[in-house]
Amino acid sequence: MGQNEREFADWLASRCRPSSIDGAIPIGDDMGGIATGSGQILVSSDMLLDGVHFDSKQHSLEMIGRKAAACSLSDCAAMAVCPKGVVVSLALPKESSIEDARAIMEGVIGICDEFDCALIGGDTTSWHHALVIDVAIIAEPFPGIEPVRRSGAQVGDRIFVTGPLGGSIYGGHMTFTPRVTEARRIASTLGSKLHAMMDISDGLGIDLDRMMTASKKGATLDRLDVLQVASPALREVESNESRRIDHVLSDGEDYELLLTANVDDSVANDLGLIPLGVVTNSTGLTLKSGDDESPIEPRGWQHF
Known about the structure:
By secondary structure, the protein is α+β, with helices and mostly antiparallel strands.
């Protein structure tokens, strides 16, 4: 087993017995799925750590709780499914109070209420270490919409995102809105023309590479499009174009949707989709500027 997160996930997938039941979604997407007699259930979990995903010395406890739940809601957006309930586990520092726990959960409940997603359980513990929050979320397909996986990209598809990228560290990583509503509209409008989708949590470069690897395809991004998708926060602090591109590709925690589809400009514009490039029949990622192409190293956040 290699020493990075992807190779660990690949190893884990190889150790798990794949389900032969229709509707099952194994390891490899933003959520896993199982089929039941009454339909399909999708599940995912996200663990957030003080000092890694948030800073309790800088961010309010309510904001921290909100982000923890928003990350899981973004998993639902990634596959265009309907969030139904969350289970939240807290590991609180020993010096924490009941009021602290309530503040965290007010943040969780607030963002979940926006998407009609219920808090249905969890666990609360304390220890002599920093705050840890784990949110598990349960979802089901929206009526008439199959969960969208990351492995269906097709040659010639256009690559889109739903919003600006890069510079999330300047505040956006704590205040983003999960694109659940947008995902449902995109999937409903595009139907079979929508081929692959995920959210951008670790960085455009590494997440696009994951999508292309799962789809056994490659991708070419347009340099001007990548520059234009840079967030206002990033534009304010970075004037150098090469460094700005690097931030767009690798910053992470943008939580916009990344998707590939066979769709024209008018429909894409109506959906608010921002074009970045095309899916190719090669392998790997490239950045195109005029007639020149250069390889993109798929960098972004990895825990090890």
